[in-house]
Amino acid sequence: MNMRKKEIVMEDIELEENEDVEKDVVEIIPPASGKKISNITDLPGVGAATAEKLTAAGFDNIMSIAVSSVGQLVEITGVSEAVARKMIQASRDALDMGFQSGEDILKKREKVQKIQTGSKAVDAMMGGGFETGAITECFGEFGSGKTQIGHILATNTIANDPEAVVVYIDTENTFRPERIIQLAEGANLDPDKVLRNIKVARAYNSDHQMLLGEKVEELIKKQNLKVKMVIVDSLTAHFRAEFIGRGTLADRQQKINKHMHTLMRLADTYNLAVYVTNQVMAKPDMFFGDPTQAIGGHIVAHASTFRIYLRKGKKGSRVAKLIDSPNLPESEACFMVTKEGLKDI
Hints:
13 strands, 14 helices, 2 domains, 345 residues, Rossmann fold, DNA polymerase, domain 1, two-stranded antiparallel ribbon
């Protein structure tokens, strides 16, 4: 009797295992030959349930799947690594993600827009203004003008395009609508309209800050907002406060790296400008030269397209030094921060 029971149980287990196997086999069957892949449901291994999980996580188009990693898809959907690889490969094949000629890249660069600051010297240093499709990092001591430039860029972005929306992720409670009103009036803009087009979110910790960065894509896709600039002021404040000591350095850098890559993907995918401010520290072992160094180390340095060092000058002036750029030489610009914005000396 016991043997008979055992045989029945074993048959049930085998049947369940076979059903799971059949289910997996059905999921990884590639699309019919010649079928054009236009959305995620056309990908091999993506059924209704998997598509729902991907969409909920923000992977709702072919490009997002193509640039994702196997680990990300496995974590989100629960599919096997083999299925995740098939999904990614099919997406890349559909998009023809191969090499492009320099001429093609040059044509793509024609879509880059420049956002001016009001200072001819600063704009000239930046090759005409702050670029869309790039991350610009400004670092310097307190009072050097980092937040002021953020407010000015937000106002000027809307001045260039009245339909443009600016996302301001505030980590240090530095956003001031009163300053936006001053700048808008100085540029002969409607202050109320400018304020309506700036979406401000206060980040209370590093995880909240990272989540807000990921939520920007929802504003673009679900609310159909024309986001042209994302400002993070400041990038490293929460990470610096929460990860203390050398033992937590690796975890901190890993999280900052993930956050920067989210911002990088937003800039590249939607041709928007990303402006981040960064705190500094003093190097006690620096006997010659300026001991000021940006927080975040090489992770932030490598992820930023342009890096600007701000410092206080004489008689209330400020000095901006472009220290890293893929196409511009190192140079400096002096300016004054006024009620109307940045002005040349």
